[in-house]
Design a protein that fits this description.
Keywords: Membrane, Transmembrane, Transmembrane helix. Helix content is about 80%, strand content about 0%. By secondary structure, the chain is mostly helical.
């Protein structure tokens, strides 16, 4: 065998090894990319489901419930394209299709939640931030029209204001029940200030009206508690009375 043939065979062998290596690399890259996409879609589907089920009932409209269900279905259908043999996933999509088919008549079974602690308020705020992220990402990926995403993000801002108003109102009312008028006044004041700091405070006039009414009530109770009671004369009022009696006695002596 001539040296030229041997050289050609070596070159061909090297080229074949390079091609095989490149094909293996492409296959591994494709497999890794698919695995990442599956993990991402599964995570987004789970997050939308959690939001749909755990958001406070007073903040979940049929439209929002429908949107979250639609996103779950879209992510699930994309997952099914990547894993056509996943029978469990396929069966889980049927109830979602049925719910989406109901449109705005979709049932909303989320129970209302009382927002009485800072920890609870932070938990719900974190949920709203997660909702904002899911909607923005869905619009970016083409799962949601830009106009609808913009409208929903505006709704989330309203929900955030509602969250703070409920929190400060509940804190104030709880303080009033415990006869802590000053703490109640502070809570209502913080609520009023929060609403007034919004970019569009006129949009939240009803909230502002309610908070100001509660603030006036708390102020009245603070003033009332600051005044001495007639039935229980304070040391100060007793002192003033004795001074008045002494002054009267002095005047009587002078004029007598």
């Amino acid at each position: 065998m001539s040296p030229l043939v041997i050289t050609l065979l070596i070159v061909v062998g090297i080229v074949i090894l390079v091609i095989i290596g490149y094909i293996n690399h492409m296959l591994e890259t494709s497999k890794l990319q698919k695995a990442r996409e599956v993990a991402d879609l599964s995570d987004r589907m789970r997050r939308c489901a959690d939001l749909s089920e755990t958001l406070p009932g007073q903040m979940v409209s049929p439209g929002l419930k429908l949107l979250l269900t639609r996103l779950q279905l879209q992510f699930g259908e994309r997952l099914l394209q990547l894993d056509k043999r996943n029978a469990a996933l396929k069966s889980s999509l049927e109830p979602l299709r049925a719910l989406v088919g109901q449109g705005e008549s979709i049932p909303v079974n989320n129970p209302p939640q009382k927002i009485l602690t800072e920890a609870k308020a932070k938990e719900i705020r974190f949920q709203l931030e997660g909702l904002h992220g899911q909607i923005a990402r869905a619009a970016q990926d083409g799962h949601l029209p830009a106009a609808e995403a913009k409208s929903r993000i505006k709704d989330i801002r309203d929900m955030l204001v509602q969250l703070h108003v409920e929190f400060f109102t509940n804190l104030g009312l709880q303080a009033l029940q415990e006869n802590q008028a000053r703490q109640a006044r502070l809570a209502f004041e913080r609520g009023v200030q929060y609403v007034q700091k919004q970019n569009d405070p006129a949009r939240y006039q009803e909230y502002l009206k309610q908070l100001k009414a509660q603030l006036e009530r708390a102020n009245a109770l603070v003033l009332e508690s600051a005044q001495p009671q007639a039935a229980e004369p304070s040391e100060l009022t007793e002192g003033m009375k004795s001074l008045e009696d002494e002054d009267t006695w002095k005047k009587k002596n002078i004029y007598d």
